[in-house]
Every structure is written in C-alpha cells, then in structure tokens.
Design brief:
mainly alpha, globular, two-stranded antiparallel sheet
Length: 516
C-alpha cells in the first residue's frame, strides 16, 4: 500500500508545488519518490496485500513488475535533460498508472490505469516539438485512443458473459470468447504485437531517445502484468489460438523487419516487436507469473542499456554507422551497448538466454511445439542483425566519426541540449546534422552510475539466474497438477485411507512406502 500512496501522493503534491520549486529540485524529489516506491515494493517481498475491496492486489507479480516500471522511470529521469518541470511529473504519473495496472484484478480499474500512464506518454512522445515528434505523438495518440475503445468494448462483452468485472470470472460461449479477444487486441497494441505494431517504429524513432527507453521497458511490464492476470492457462481454450497467432506474426515480422533497418532506434523498435512475441509464450505455461517477470526484468536491463547509450550519443536519430568504433571512442558506452545487445540476442550464458529458455519451456509444456520451433528459427534470424550491430561497435572508427564526436561535444557545450533555454538549437551551424543538433544532456555521475549498476545486475542474473527466478516465484500459489492413480497389475486392492504428500513435476510417478 505504501508504494501506491507514495507514487500517487508525490505526483499530486509535486503538481501543486512545481511552480514554486526549481526544476532541478523537482527532478530530485521525483527520483527520490521512485526510489522509495521501489524500496517499499521490495519490503515484504512474497506477501500479498489487498485493499479497496479486492480492487488492489499487491502480490509478487505486482511487486516485480512495479520494480521494472520504476527502473524505466529512473532511466528516463537520470538521462533526460528535463529542462521543463513538466517532464519529471509526466514520468511520475506514468509510473503511477503502470503500478496500478500491475496491481489490480479489476477490468474497470485497468482502464483507468491504462489512461493514467498513456496520456503522459502521448505528451512525452512530442517532447522535441519538431516534425517527427509531432508525427510520433499524433500516431501514438490516435492509435492509443482506438486501443482504449477496443478495450472498453471487450470489457463490456466480458461483463455480459460473466456478470463480473473481476479477472478470472467463469464464462463460456461466443460472447465470452469475443470479449477476451478484444481485450487481447487492446493489450497487443500496448505491447506492439503484430498486427497492432504499426505505431512502434515511427514513435520510437520520432520520440526523444530517453522517452523511447521508457516506452520500451516500462510499458511492456505494465501491459504484460495485466495480461498475466486475465489470460490464465485455465482459459486457454478460449484465447489460446488468438494469442498463438499474435506470437507467430510478431516473431516473424519483428525479426524480418529489422533486417533492412539503418537507424538504431528503428531497428530496436522492430526488435521490441519480436520480443513481445517471445514474452507472450510465457502466458501458456503454469508458471508464467514467474518466468515473464524474469524475462521483463532482464529485457528491461538490456534494453535500458541500449537506449541509455543511444541517448548519450543523440536525443534524436542514431544512424547505425554512428556506432562504428564506439568501443574505441568511448569504451564504457561501447561495452554497455555490446552487453545489452548480446543479452537481448539471447547468447548463452547471459541473462537474456535464460529468460528465453524459460518462456520457451512454458510454451513447450502447454504443447505449443510449433510456436517454440518458430521462435527458435526467428531467434536465429535476429542473431544476424544483432551481431551486425555488435561487430560494428568493435570495428575500427573512421576519422569522419571522430570528427562527428567532436562536433557533437562542441554543440552540446555551446548550445546545450534540445531543451536548453536561451539560444535555440536551430541556431547551430548548418554543417551539423539533425542528430548532432539535438544531443542528449550532459552525462553526469548519476547516469553513469545507473549504467554501471545495470551492467552489474545483468551480469549477476547471468551468473545466478535461479536467484531472480526464485524471487519471482516467492509467494505464488502452488501449481495444481493432475494425479492419476492406477490399480496394481496383479489386480489386488488396498483397503483403508491413504494420503499423498510431496512435490513432483508433471509426468512423474509416485509410489507408496512399500514401492507398490
């Protein structure tokens, strides 16, 4: 409960005090609020807190994915210029909405939470106030409004079939299936799953890089938290085919679309489409509430590293050629970007490999072997463009790229970031490219500290993946398994009462003390 009170309370109070305190103080207080929210999410880990008549459920799933959302918010605040006081407030309101979405089993509350975190993102997408920024914001807003309308219609059908707004209500028939499929389509938009992904490449490319980072990490965590509560394996026959189609299309389109990209943000937008499909595989299995949060945490760390480095190079477009020789020009940034790329690729023994293995295992347990094979094939396709960027980072830089670095640093020193007050960036020399005229804010100690911390945590999860998985399994109810008892071969019978205790994996057999 303290996490909710902290986020909502600080967002409300700072909205009133933002005109009275300095911009930097506003950002510091917002960072402190997110850190406290993350701390109180960890306190009492494994316990479930319910409030407001069951409308709020803060369990292990909500705690874990709230941490991922908080992590995305901290990335955005520590890396973003935030020359205007509205920027930290919008990030804080968005994280608050994501927390509510991760913590509610009620569909009406989920609609409210969806709008609470979507509206700030529409504004943040247009933060650069240029042509591409306006295009990104408009596309995101119009398609987001359509997604919200589909969500509402799906909820109406769900209520008509079940008589309840709570997830997990018993239902059947065409009305129930149609409601679930419409709700699935709404969340497929938020997670950029095919065929609802068309906004993703343009919005990722047109938004400021730090905002793209926030979208790529935190939004997926909130959306999949709600999907885990709604689409449970018990109702697989109602939504399984629809989800399987989304996953197949997403993994194919995302990886094939990334092959021809020449701009880094657009390439990783297609990568996020493919990863949404991989994450969806975890919905089929009985332990998806642990494996999907683990995947989202590793994906959030790796993607955060990628976009954090891109934001330190430019706050707008980053052509792939700009990354050539980054290891030699800026070793810390090159190493962080390389580690993030290899983890998203799923190269063993990095954390991204264990995350993919776990969600593939969930789909295999449910019998979706064709989807698993397709996911493996498309992962091999994805290895091509990931490794192409990786080898680009560690290739020798050209004199032209070193000159571009000097120009960018000079422009940043003279004109500041794209949000700096005073002389507008448009007054910069015409010889500078658009990407160099809008560099990210100066890289300070907090941003570098978070970069190193994310690398260390990703390395820890690579060495000890079971540590993270056990943390997400804490407090989850045991998985029910069917038990088959067969008569002895000789036809004898046992008289009396018997009890069966212990734990076992599906498919294992149990025998009594006499071995019969």
């Amino acid at each position: 409960m303290l996490t909710l009170y902290l986020l909502a309370g600080f967002a409300t109070v700072l909205s009133l005090l933002a005109f009275l305190i300095s911009r930097e103080a506003n950002r510091i207080v917002t960072v402190a609020a997110l850190l406290l929210a993350g701390l109180f999410s960890v306190v009492g880990w494994g316990q479930t807190v319910e409030a407001f008549g069951g409308l709020y459920r803060f369990d292990t799933l909500a705690r874990g994915l709230t941490l991922v959302a908080v992590l995305g918010g901290l990335w955005a605040l520590l890396l973003g210029p935030a020359r205007k006081f509205e920027y930290p407030l919008l990030v804080l309101f968005a994280v608050t909405g994501m927390h509510v979405m991760a913590s509610s089993p009620n569909l009406v509350v989920l609609v409210i939470a969806l709008e609470v975190f979507s509206l700030p993102l529409y504004v943040l997408a247009t933060w650069q106030r240029d042509e591409k920024g306006f295009e990104a914001g408009l596309k995101y807003f119009l398609l987001g409004a359509l997604g919200a309308a589909i969500f509402l219609y799906g909820i109406a059908l769900y209520f008509g079939a079940t008589g309840s707004f709570m997830v997990g209500a018993t239902g059947s028939g065409p009305l129930y299936v149609a409601g679930l499929l419409l709700i699935m389509a709404a969340f497929a938009f938020k997670t950029a799953m095919v065929p609802f992904q068309w906004w993703s490449p343009d919005v990722y490319q047109g938004s400021p890089t730090v905002v793209t980072l926030f979208m790529a990490t935190a939004v997926k965590a909130a959306a999949f938290a709600a999907m885990l509560r709604i689409f449970t394996p018990e109702g697989l026959e109602a939504w399984g085919i629809g989800m399987a189609a989304l996953i197949a299309l997403s993994t194919l389109f995302g990886n094939l679309g990334a092959l021809s990209q020449t701009e880094a943000k657009r390439l990783f937008a297609y990568s996020s489409i493919a990863n949404a499909g991989y994450i969806g595989l975890g919905l089929f299995g009985p332990t998806g509430q642990a494996t999907i949060p683990f995947y989202l945490l590793t994906y959030g760390l790796a993607t955060g590293l990628i976009f954090a480095v891109l934001s330190m190079l430019s706050n707008q477009e980053v052509p792939l050629e700009r990354l050539r020789g980054l290891w030699y020009r800026k070793p810390l940034l090159g190493g962080a970007l390389g580690l993030g790329i290899l983890s998203v690729l799923g190269l063993p023994p990095l954390a991204g490999f264990w995350a993919k293995y776990l969600v593939f295992q969930e789909a295999a347990r449910a019998g979706f072997y064709g989807l698993v094979v397709l996911a493996l094939v498309t992962s091999a396709i994805g290895a091509y463009y990931y490794l192409r960027v990786f080898f680009l980072i560690f290739s020798q830089p050209t004199p032209a790229q070193e000159a571009e670095d000097r120009e960018a640093e000079a422009a940043l020193a003279q004109y500041g970031s794209s949000e700096a007050p005073g002389v507008p960036v448009a007054a910069a020399p015409m010889g500078l490219t658009q990407a160099l005229m809008a560099p990210a804010a100066r890289t300070g100690l907090p941003a570098l500290g978070m970069l190193v911390g994310a690398m260390a945590l990703l390395g820890l999860l690579s060495v000890l993946p079971g540590l993270g998985l056990r943390a997400f399994r804490a407090g989850l109810p045991p998985v029910a398994a069917a038990v088959t008892i067969t008569a002895p071969v000789d036809g004898s019978t046992r008289v009396g009462s018997h009890t069966l205790q212990g734990t076992a994996q599906p498919g294992q057999t149990a025998a009594d003390a006499n071995g019969q």
